[in-house]
Amino acid sequence: MAGMKRRCSHGRGAALLLICSLCVLNRNPLELSTLSSHSFVASGSGLVRHAASLCRLAMQAVAAPQELEEAKAQEAVIVDLRGAGEREGGIFVPEAIHAPWDGSSMPLENLPADKNALIVLHCAVGGRAEKGKAFLESLGYTNVLNGGGPATPEQWSVLTR
Fold this sequence. Notes:
This protein is α/β, with parallel strands linked by helices.
């Protein structure tokens, strides 16, 4: 597989690549030689299989659009976990609190003190949001949803309305 150009095989190219770039940033032993919007050159065996598995896991963890509609109707706090560079170009939820996920935590100062408050986390796909959800739940937050992100169009359309 080394040196071969691969394309997403399960129809979610952007999700596949965003998740994989996170694995690499988190010092996953798999390596990428190049990364672009819909293709990459793999230098670690099993990368395509690994990426597809992660993508499917992230997609399963994302809240259904109806859940997000209900959360917005209840005035949920929306939190954007992406880095500043990912928000460039106007691809963000205007009312969202920006609290970038650093791989193990996020800034908490702008989050509600009420641990029962309804919070919707989003990133690009849902991988960081799922980790952020687990982090907040470990701190006692009880009502946290994974809102996916721009690469989950049904959820993103709800968040950006």
